[in-house]
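Figure caption, in words: inputs first, then the predicted bound structure.
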Amino acid sequence: MKGQRFYSQGEHHWFVLFDQGEQRVIDANVYALAVGDQTMLMDPGGAEVFNQVFGALMGVLPPGSVKAALVSHQDPDIASSLPLWNACNPRILWHVPKLWAGFIRHYGALEAYFHEIPDEGGDIDFAGRRLTLVPAHYLHSPANFHLYDPAAKVYFSGDVGAALLPPGHDAFIDRRDDDSPRAFDAHIQHAEYFHRRWMPSMEAKRDWCERVSKLDIDFLCPQHGAIYTGKNVERFIDWFADLPVGFGNWQQGH
Ligand SMILES: [Fe+2]
Ligand SMILES: [Fe+2]
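Bound structure (fe (ii) ion present):
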């Protein structure tokens, strides 16, 4: 796994840890927001790849700087490493959906320090920066949150925007030819089945597309696959708005 910085302004930085070597578990990205000497992780990953994530993090930031983490929803590829991180530092503040808190404790670390996110989401403060926990319920989990950093224009989108890419993939969708949809079209083939199959609700999807299209986003960062930048952000939201998903739709074309 590699670490790459993609946003930097003064003491405010964003990193992506990506391209997992272990292929028996689903490939997942972990994002790290660093402000000064404090770091927050987005969806810190599965127990089986903890060593890889930790190693990649060490390449870019001191792991001891991790003070907070977001668990967007309950899945094992997101939260099963929680007890391992907590063993490193029991003072980490875990932002977890309130609805899932009692389930996530089944991964271990009963004493971990949880902020239970209410269904409506809302703003949090991290190292003096305002971040927004954006509700994205039923995309795919019934209690699910994304994170928006308005200063960096980074939107962490969890499983929305996920693509299942072969090993050795890049951190970004190629944007050298941003005016052409060619790179996006090639990329989105790896995302289509995932969205049809995993996203259960047309209504939730439409509502999300409407809300998120109003945000100013430079980087749309999914938990699997590659980051959407520039015009590919809008292309993705438009593509998702038109995609049939969920029950009665997912079988089409397969
Ligand atoms: Fe998931
Ligand atoms: Fe996932």
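Helices lie at 50-60, 76-79, 82-88, 101-104, 182-198, 202-212, 231-242.
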